[in-house]
Write a structure and sequence with these properties.
With 228 residues, this protein is α/β, with parallel strands linked by helices. It has 7 helices and 6 strands; from the N terminus they run βααβαβαβααββα. One of its GO terms (biological process) is polyprenol biosynthetic process.
Length: 228
C-alpha cells in the first residue's frame, strides 16, 4: 500500500546543545550541526513529496538563554540565510519566517525579507522557519490585528488569515530529543496534528528517522473527533 505523505510537517528541532555536551563540544557547535541537518531533511522532505516544512528555530522564550548562545544563534541564522540562498533557488524552495520582529536586528530582518522576496515565486516545498516565535504570541498578535481592523465577528477560517503565515495546518509534528512537550509551537495549528517523538538529538536525525516518522503517521487512525 502506498504511504500517505503529510502535506505539512512541523519539526521541533530539539537537542542541539545536549548533542554537543555529550561530545564535550560547545553548544554553538551543536547548533551548527543542527543547521546541516535542516539542509539534509529539507531536501529529503521535498523528495518525499512534503509541501510545507515548518521548523522551530528560535522561540520567544529562548531570549532567556546566555547572551553568548543567543548571539551565536542570531549569527548562525543570518549565515544560513546567506549561504542557502543559491541552494533554495536551485531547488525551487519558497522561504518564509513566522515570528515577531522585536529584538531582532535590522540587518537580520532585512536579510529575512530579502530572501522571502527572492523566493516568493518558487513553487516547490515551502520552508517556514519559526524564528522569535511563540504560539501564544502568534494568537495574541492575530487578535490585536483583528481588533485594530474593527472586526466584531470572525470564524476559524478567517482567524487563520491573521496568523503570521496563512498556510495549511500540519498533519504531523516531529519532536527530537525525547521530550513530550509542545513548547509553545503552533498552538492554534496543531489542534488535530499527529505527534511523533524520537530520542534522537536533532543533529542525529537523518533520512531513516524521517521515514520512521512517516511510517508511524501512516499507522494512525485520524478521525478528527468523529468515529468510524
Amino acid at each position: 500500500m502506498e504511504l500517505k505523505i503529510p502535506n505539512h510537517i512541523g519539526i521541533i528541532m530539539d537537542g542541539n546543545g545536549r548533542w554537543a555536551k555529550k561530545r564535550n563540544l560547545p553548544r554553538t557547535l551543536g547548533h551548527r550541526e543542527g543547521a546541516k541537518t535542516l539542509r539534509k531533511i529539507l531536501t529529503y522532505a521535498s523528495q518525499r513529496g512534503v509541501k510545507y516544512l515548518t521548523v522551530y528555530a528560535f522561540s520567544t522564550e529562548n531570549w532567556k538563554r546566555a547572551k553568548e548562545e543567543v548571539d551565536a544563534l542570531m549569527f548562525l541564522f543570518k549565515t544560513y540565510i546567506k549561504s542557502e540562498r543559491k541552494n533554495l533557488m536551485k531547488n525551487n524552495v519558497r522561504f518564509l519566517v513566522s515570528g515577531r520582529t522585536e529584538g531582532v536586528s535590522d540587518s537580520l530582518l532585512e536579510a529575512i525579507r530579502d530572501l522571502e522576496e527572492t523566493t516568493k515565486e518558487n513553487t516547490g516545498i515551502v520552508l517556514n522557519i519559526a524564528f522569535n516565535y511563540g504560539g501564544r504570541a502568534e494568537i495574541i498578535d492575530a487578535v490585536n490585528k483583528i481588533i485594530n481592523q474593527g472586526k466584531k465577528e470572525i470564524t476559524e477560517d478567517t482567524f487563520k488569515e491573521y496568523l503570521y503565515n496563512n498556510i495549511p495546518d500540519p498533519e504531523l509534528i516531529i519532536r527530537t530529543s525525547g521530550e513530550f512537550r509542545i513548547s509553545n509551537f503552533l498552538l492554534w495549528q496543531v489542534a488535530y496534528s499527529e505527534f511523533y517523538i524520537t530520542d534522537l538529538f536533532w543533529p542525529e536525525f537523518d533520512e531513516k528517522a524521517f521515514d520512521d516518522a512517516i511510517n508511524s503517521y501512516n499507522k494512525r487512525d485520524r478521525r478528527f473527533g468523529g468515529a468510524k
